[in-house]
Amino acid sequence: MEDLKHLALLIVGILVAFTVVMTMVAYTVLAERRVLGFIQGRLGPNRVGPGGLLQPLADLLKCIFKEDIVPDKSTRFVYFLAPTIVTTAALMTIIVYPFGPDIHLPFIDKTIQLVIARFDVGLLYVLGVTSVGVYGIALAGWSSNNKYSLMGGLRSSAQMISYELALGLGLIGVILQSGTLALYSIVEQQSGHLGITGWNLIWVQPLGFLVSLIAAIAETNRVPFRISHRIQRDEVCAVLSGRIREHVHGINVGDDAFPRRMERAVRSSTSVARCFLFSG
Amino acid sequence: MLALLFILFAGMAIGCAISMVAQRNPLYGAISLIGVFISLACLYVTLAAPFIAAVQVIVYAGAIMVLVVFVIMLLNVEDEERQPMRLRSLVPIAIGLAAILFAETAFIIFFVHSSPGTPTTNISDVGLTSSIGAGLFTTYLLPFEITSILLLMAVVGAMTLARRGGLLGANVGIVPGYQSFARETLNPLATPDLAQVEARTSREAEQLLGVADAPHARDEE
Known about the structure:
The complex is a heterodimer.
Chain A: H1 2-39, H2 55-65, H3 76-92, E1 103-105, E2 110-112, H4 122-143, H5 147-178, H6 183-189, H7 200-204, H8 206-219, H9 242-246, H10 251-277
Antiparallel strand pairs in A: 1-2
Helix pairs in contact in A: 1-10, 2-10, 3-4, 3-10, 4-5, 5-8, 8-10
Chain B: H1 2-22, H2 26-46, H3 50-75, H4 90-111, H5 129-137, H6 141-162, E1 179-182, H7 183-186, E2 196-199, H8 202-209
Antiparallel strand pairs in B: 1-2
Helix pairs in contact in B: 1-2, 2-3
């Protein structure tokens, strides 16, 4: 019975964290579009809700109602598996994120932990899940039955596995500094020093922070590492981003673009930021 | 609870293993093998070895299998054709040996006395990262250093095999795609000038400059 209660609490925690993270991702994308518009001298999406706040909902509805284009060869399973792998890998990391310190509820006299799973090897778990997420890109490129898309997928996944190494090495300084692989412990060690001065990892490990940040940005194919988006018009380097062309319709746009954006929002903003900047 | 988890992960591992062997498409086999490695990592967690589980995912599923998947995709390995079965006489022998294996397993389960009761959760310290680190750098330091040298040998071997020959010097790197390099790199006797040669491969560049019939470093390989 105790096990079942614990399990139910975990499931509730997962659902809450999932909702929070997905909403955060959706509105981070909107904010990014507005800011990019401002940088480029135009307005971003501002028509749908007040200030464009319902834009993610509108995008979701549009993607749902678009036609799915599926290949007619026998690679349907992999075609639908690839975005699933990317999404799952991006979301599996949130169970080790310490969203906050323990909360004491005064009336019920209970303590709620804001970490879904207190792994002792939390950082290694994040690195492992990141490594598995590479398959999504490679399989997406392969399953589109198109050699340009295959090359694009392979190049993009080659970039991702190259920067995994840099990400791991940048995090070694954090591990040595904190003496533990557990994310909640790393974060707790930075708390209590009057806020920003407690972020000793960004002051003590500036190079590690920079390296990890750049590697995380490269991992999630953000600018300037957007190989998977670049269409080189030069006929010599004809690496068309065919993966995008194949997945251009329907929910697969959502499946492919949103997981990548979600991955980058989840990873590059939270993974590095929370390891280095979170102060208790 | 632990038995349920074991059955789940072991079943997943066996299912993925059978799928890997039975698939005709090699990429599906590779994906099934990834499933096997991940279920093995889950089994390691139930055995109180979280570090080994994470390293299994990172190294096996995340690096080695990525290499295998790359090779399958780049070489465009075809599906296996269904071939007529040969050596039909081996089938009853295989069935007999499998029956012996099952009988041995049943014997061990039912007749060999093990510790009573279901196994409790292992709360030992052996599988934790700090224990592994402490052992690795004190008791097992020599195997650790030898393993590092082994990995270094592998890296040097890979670099040696992948190095391209040709008239390009040792300090010229090969970048896929457009290559542009100075004329005197290809023909050391030419007067150095700033005009650049643009070609798609080093062989094409050599042809453009008229040095294609010169001896190549790769002729000696």
